[in-house]
Amino acid sequence: MATKNKDKISFREFLSRYTNIPEKIIDEYTIFFEACEVEHYGILLDSVIKFLQISDKQKFYKMFNTNYRENIDYIKKNITTKTPKTTKTTKYYIELDTFEKLCMITDTAKGDVMRNYFISYRKLIDYYKNDFANAINIKAYKNPNKCVYIITTNKKIKYGFTNKGLRTRFTNYITSTGIHPDVNFILVVDNPKEVESCVKAFVKKYEIKPRHEIVHIRYDMLKRIMTDCAQLSAEYNNMPIDGDLDTYIVFNDIFDNDEEPSIVNISHNDKVGYQKMTKKNTKLNSKSKNTKLKLNSKSKNTKKLNSKSKNMSSKSTKKSKKSKKSKIKKYVPK
User: Is residue 130 part of a domain?
Assistant: First the structure.
């Protein structure tokens, strides 16, 4: 699948040009790879069973249900087929990681072919490791505002994002603290703000000092969180929109109750009437506006009443003072 940007090549082109993997295996693998580029759970499990030449389908499904997690490794979809009798069947759809795990554990001839495929990856990385490292460092130097890093200071892990470049950031850190940090991990991302907010959401409970980005956490876990957030951001920002959108997500802050009838009981494939919901919202908004107007008018009326009562009270005090003066008799000396 060719890309529009001349500086980028597709995954299939990379494998074909820079590895010794047979073209047939590349073609077969990229079918599954590209299916998950369109949809996260894009691989039908039945097609994997056929591809890996698994004979005992019932035994395989028993193993699969035991070892893999729904809504993480796979999802289920209810498929309705119209024949002389309408039948409903449940289909399993898996993600790419699950597909690769199945390839590595399947004891068939095709499974052995796929294991050799993954061994070729390791050999490729080992052969080009210096070139890969240099390319990442150059990219980090040219894009200083797109770097994510992990450093260690006094046995404390600190992660961060910088807009000024790593060299400037670390120089400022050494100047302010007098401590030279050890750089453990660098990741160049396309959307640093998205990745930063994603990482902070997961790491917040491990923070030692709020807003200082110093955390008490396993180093491997922090690396995984940062990498997963970067991959998630890249995946959904680069996901093609084919026009076949089947769901509207409506946020309505009028309702505090999550069980509001316009939100619950919406299945994955239901087409939600957005216009109807917006009309409902406009009615609610108009009601809220009317109530606000009524409240404002009431408040104005109460202000008028208060002002009248003040005037009445002031008049009454004046009258009382006059009456007191009239009661006092003037003293006339004899």
Answer: yes
What's 264's DSSP letter? Answer: S
- Of the CA atoms within 13 Å of residue 325, those in its CB half-sphere come to 6
List 153's β-bridge partners, or say none.
156
Nearest-5° Cα angle at 44, 77 to 266? 20
Rounded to whole angstroms, the Cα distance separating 272 from 269 reads 9
The pLDDT tens digits for 245-266 are 666 666 555 445 555 554 444 4
Residue where a domain stops, chosen among 110, 139, 168: 139
What the block records as the tokens of 133 is 């490292």
Model's pTM, two decimal places?
A: 0.62
The neighbour count for residue 172, using CB atoms within 10 Å, is: 12
State how many domains the chain has.
Answer: 3
Does 224 share its domain with 264? no
Q: Are 26 and 15 in contact (CB under 8 A)?
A: yes
Q: 333 in a domain, yes or no?
A: no
Q: How many CA atoms lie within 13 A of 299 on its CB side?
A: 6
- 81-131 pLDDT per residue, tens: 777 777 888 999 999 999 999 999 999 999 999 999 999 999 999 999 999
Give domain status of residue 75, yes or no.
Answer: yes
Range of the domain at 89: 11-139
pLDDT tens for residues 4-24?
455 678 899 999 999 999 999
Tokens, residue 45 = 């499990």
Q: 33 and 129: one domain?
A: yes
Whether 314 is covered by a domain: the verdict is no
74 contacts 95 by C-beta, under 8 angstroms: yes
Specify whether the CB–CB gap between 132 and 160 falls below 8 A.
no
